[in-house]
Amino acid sequence: MSSPFDLSGRTAVVTGGGRGLGLGISHALMEAGADVIVFGRSPLPAGLSARAGELGRQVHLVALDLADSDAITAATHEVLSGHRVDILVNNAGTQERHPAVDFPLEAWDRVLDINLRAVFQLCQLFGAPMLERGEGKIVNLASLLSFQGGMTVPAYAASKGAVAQLTKALCNEWSGRGVNVNAVAPGYMDTEMNVALLADPVRMEQLSTRIPAGRWGQPQDVGNVVVFLASPAAEYVHGQILAVDGGWMAR
Question: Would you call 205 exposed, middle or buried from its count of C-beta atoms within 10 A (0-12, 13-18, 19+)?
């Protein structure tokens, strides 16, 4: 009997899957047996391609800017013309830091375009054939700021709060049609998106002492949970916002 976490024979699209949390997610999905198509702007790291070869998996990049709605549509149609996509992971996101009173509206629009509009568009485009088949897994990346307000990141907090609600809304429409829609809410992660926090010793100490697990998260911590949500093991898991935070939300 195969493992309920086995993803052999499945194909996953991971936005931003070549760096940060996305790279950990891509590695974890390949380790579980899936082929991976990365949507993003950055070239794939050599280590990811090498690992794919070792595992007998396929991984390739579809280069696009997730702020470009037309490019998303074109790229998705191209992928679907040649692949059955079983798993969609909306990982890519962007961050802008400004005090709320001075937050530039151009920055607000950019964050919401990438973090929310692109997520919904990709859910629509990849979700349609999943609904036709009666099978598919969508995992969105929410955040602790889906629950909390944060500081100097009002656009990011608004976008991630909306991603959590979008996940629940899609669950209500799609779970009865065989498509699981869930979200992962990463805690404080040791990635380049948090370089400003990691470089501030006072803020770093304040945050670290509140994490019961005693450490910041790593991309693999999130990747392993994405594998669970994308696998048959999570067949009856719908509409959840699963915090992967070292216990932060419990404190």
Answer: exposed
